[in-house]
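Hello everyone,

My group is preparing for a crystallization screen and wants a predicted model to guide construct design. The compound we'll soak is magnesium ion. Before spending weeks at the bench, it would help to have a computed complex in hand. I've included the protein sequence and the ligand's SMILES below. Output in structure-token form would be ideal because that's what our pipeline reads.
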Amino acid sequence: MATSGYRGTRSATQDGTDSTAATLIIGGVVAIATLGCVVSVAGALSGLLAGHGWAWPSGDDPALFAGLKATITSPSNPAAAWPGDTAAGSGWLFWVCFAVLVAAVGVLAWKVWAFIDTRRARAEAKERGLATATDLAAANLTEAAAVMRARRGNVTYDGVKTRDIDPAEAAIYVGELRGRREPVYVQHRDCTICEGPTGAGKTWRIAVQRCWDAPGFLAATTTKVDMIAATIGERKEVGDVEVFDPTGLTGWPKPLRWAMLAGCEEPETAIERAAALVQASPMEGVRNSSFWEVRAATVIRCFMMAAALDNQGLMTVRSWVNLKQWKPAYEILHGVYADWANDLKSVANNQSESTDDVFGTASMLLDPLADPSIARMVDVPRHESIDLESFVLGGANTLYLACKSEQKKVAPIVSALTAEVYRILDRQSQREPNNRLAVPARLVLDEVNNIAPIPHLPDKMTDSGGRGISIWAFAHNRLQNIKRWGQTAGQEFTINAPNRIILPGLGDQQELDSLSRLFGTRYERMSPDPHDIREKAVLSVDEIREMEEDQALMIYRGTKPIMLTLPQVWDRPDLAHAAEASADLFNRIRATGDVTTRLADMPTKAGQ
Ligand SMILES: Nc1ncnc2c1ncn2[C@@H]1O[C@H](COP(=O)(O)OP(=O)(O)O)[C@@H](O)[C@H]1O
Ligand SMILES: [Mg+2]
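Reply:
Good plan to model first. Here are the tokens for the complex, ready for your pipeline.
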């Protein structure tokens, strides 16, 4: 924490005692004057209502005290002792007027207090160096500004009045500015990385909401059933749902089957698919891993293409790899893509020891296929496979991708499918006006580093938003990102996204330090003496790590740090109810095996 510039403090005890006494005296005088005023007006008003005229107290005493005195001496009927020529109304009328006036003064006082408090909170946030409501408006993060920003350049809103646009559709509601009731919105184009340790609230404060509010196609990866259970009900209301679950995590009765070799006759597809498999492989501890990865990717892309061209299945690829048989693939490729055949030959026909390592690495990547239940999900004849393109581009459909966290070896398969989904969306975006999907697609990538590290994701976080692909990625911290992507890309992944949300409990000391440094310092006044100031970090390391559990720090483009309050699903009855109803539906589908069941078919819903 920066404390340089500290100029000493002076004792404030004496000042404090004096100011407390003064506040009490002033407060007492104001309270008595207000009460006198209310009593006098109540008396005068009761006189008016009783038909005597405006009975404002008069006489030797000042009006405020005269009315008060009459009320104290004759509380049951203040009119009996009311000073002045005009009589006040009867006792009950007086007290009714008094009660109404007290209520009116109370409401007025509350309004004034709220106004002052808002001003004070704004001034405090400004002094603290945190973003205020004004900063939010300037960055298009307030409700009104976010809607205006969303309609700019968006043909969907041509001819629609701004007031008819639903902010929750045009933009994404994230939470509230802390200490204020100011809702904070970001744009669909703002790809976001959320960081926080296990239990920080990634799922229940952010990911579930992002599944609920996705306006179009949604792909969501997860290592736990809870996110699927909580959101499937809502998603089934807007489109079709498929669950890809090669490890049998969810117990979903009809998990999606995908022909992983589909399209691999095309060089681009084969390259992407092999890259996705390699990118997601758990290569920790393997010496010189990137060297083997590049070569293993060459072997796999060539084998996949050869198998696809020859109508073979994935198991053929696996046996070629395990038996180090490169010649059949070479023969198939030779007549079609001679340079690919040569690529394969140069890597596979090398007499050096490294060839064994290349095949070893490739074999490790395909190892999950040894489990027949996993192989059944991806080694699928074309006619039995999902038509992924139609599904992804066919409206507000949902694809859940589940994978047990302890079965890390399967992650490459999940990642390959996620990458394919991205590729379909990306290709489509380039065919639409402005090279952007008219209805934004959403990718909610929970445990992104473990199960969904799609190739070049750090770059995609910065350029997908403009194509209408909105990525919300969830990671633990910078160290985990570096471990997955390497030093440079891992750093980029951590800091380059247009929007970054840090949840409480971040454990990476270096990241905490760099965050604190990023926000710089401010001067804090220690006493009314203008010279009595010290320099402090806008947010210290401890303040970032020890945020309260419903708090989050949002770093949005060039804006000052934004302190958010993030609602949790279980804290809000409406959200908790939606999540529970969805979970009931999920459990029923698992029990009956009928995947067509929807919320409307549920007994509790029908009874409502
Ligand atoms: N069904 C539930 N009811 C109430 N609280 C829950 C429920 N499920 C999870 N929580 C709480 O939500 C908090 C955040 O958990 P979660 O969002 O899963 O964190 P993360 O995804 O970052 O690991 C946890 O502290 C947990 O106690
Ligand atoms: Mg979670």
